[in-house]
Amino acid sequence: MHRIMIIEDEPAVREELALLLKNEGYHVLPVTDFTDVPQQTANYRPHLILLDIGLPGGDGFSLCVNLRKSADVPIIFVTGKDSGADEVKALSLGGDDYITKPYSVPVLLARIKAVLRRINKAPGADVIEIEGLSLDLAKGTVSRGTKKAVLSRNELQILACLMAYAGEIVSRADLIEMLWDNQIYIDDNTLSVNVTRLRGKLKDIGAADLIKTRRGMGYQL
């Protein structure tokens, strides 16, 4: 089970994040004492850190630099600062990703999973399974039983996002934002085409109608 440390000084945001991640099955440590975060990090040994920029007695930039001296843990900045300069600074100092508030929950969860996949060396870490469907992120294939289909990059990212937030509605805007954030340039019409193609491939492996359209809202797995 992955351990995630939340370094956020606003109690309401911290508690919201902690509850969200616990419900997703993660072990969570919300930091409430900011006097010695590097030591807490060493003790907890998180797989991922969610880090705000504005912190008591300092800032997330300086803390990121200090953490990088002793730990190789991935760091995602989650902050209300939306300037390009802050994002560039955060990434140049060792951040692995940068998400601005207010964030989209499906996009946040998808990007957390993406970062964890990149650092997880365990066998099978690149495979997502749900509803009898197995998505191999490393090979770019989806299978059900003995049947398998090869997915395009767009189709792979779309299905991975829907599977990461299975049971919930993911809006078209959230999918487009997620794909753009992963440097996959896509618009609304292109999204429709890719979802149609993805549905066709799922039908070929016996998973027809797995992706449901919720009119006016988005898609649901």
Automatic annotation (TrEMBL):
<dbReference type="GO" id="GO:0000976">
    <property type="term" value="F:transcription cis-regulatory region binding"/>
</dbReference>
<dbReference type="InterPro" id="IPR001867">
    <property type="entry name" value="OmpR/PhoB-type_DNA-bd"/>
</dbReference>
<feature type="domain" description="OmpR/PhoB-type">
    <location>
        <begin position="125"/>
        <end position="221"/>
    </location>
</feature>
<feature type="modified residue" description="4-aspartylphosphate">
    <location>
        <position position="52"/>
    </location>
</feature>
<dbReference type="InterPro" id="IPR039420">
    <property type="entry name" value="WalR-like"/>
</dbReference>
<dbReference type="InterPro" id="IPR001789">
    <property type="entry name" value="Sig_transdc_resp-reg_receiver"/>
</dbReference>
<keyword id="KW-0238">DNA-binding</keyword>
<dbReference type="GO" id="GO:0032993">
    <property type="term" value="C:protein-DNA complex"/>
</dbReference>
<dbReference type="GO" id="GO:0005829">
    <property type="term" value="C:cytosol"/>
</dbReference>
<feature type="DNA-binding region" description="OmpR/PhoB-type">
    <location>
        <begin position="125"/>
        <end position="221"/>
    </location>
</feature>
<dbReference type="GO" id="GO:0006355">
    <property type="term" value="P:regulation of DNA-templated transcription"/>
</dbReference>
<dbReference type="GO" id="GO:0000156">
    <property type="term" value="F:phosphorelay response regulator activity"/>
</dbReference>
<feature type="domain" description="Response regulatory">
    <location>
        <begin position="3"/>
        <end position="116"/>
    </location>
</feature>
<protein>
    <recommendedName>
        <fullName>Stage 0 sporulation protein A homolog</fullName>
    </recommendedName>
</protein>
<dbReference type="InterPro" id="IPR036388">
    <property type="entry name" value="WH-like_DNA-bd_sf"/>
</dbReference>
<keyword id="KW-0804">Transcription</keyword>
<dbReference type="InterPro" id="IPR016032">
    <property type="entry name" value="Sig_transdc_resp-reg_C-effctor"/>
</dbReference>
<dbReference type="Pfam" id="PF00486">
    <property type="entry name" value="Trans_reg_C"/>
</dbReference>
<dbReference type="Pfam" id="PF00072">
    <property type="entry name" value="Response_reg"/>
</dbReference>
<comment type="function">
    <text>May play the central regulatory role in sporulation. It may be an element of the effector pathway responsible for the activation of sporulation genes in response to nutritional stress. Spo0A may act in concert with spo0H (a sigma factor) to control the expression of some genes that are critical to the sporulation process.</text>
</comment>
<keyword id="KW-0597">Phosphoprotein</keyword>
<keyword id="KW-0805">Transcription regulation</keyword>
<dbReference type="InterPro" id="IPR011006">
    <property type="entry name" value="CheY-like_superfamily"/>
</dbReference>
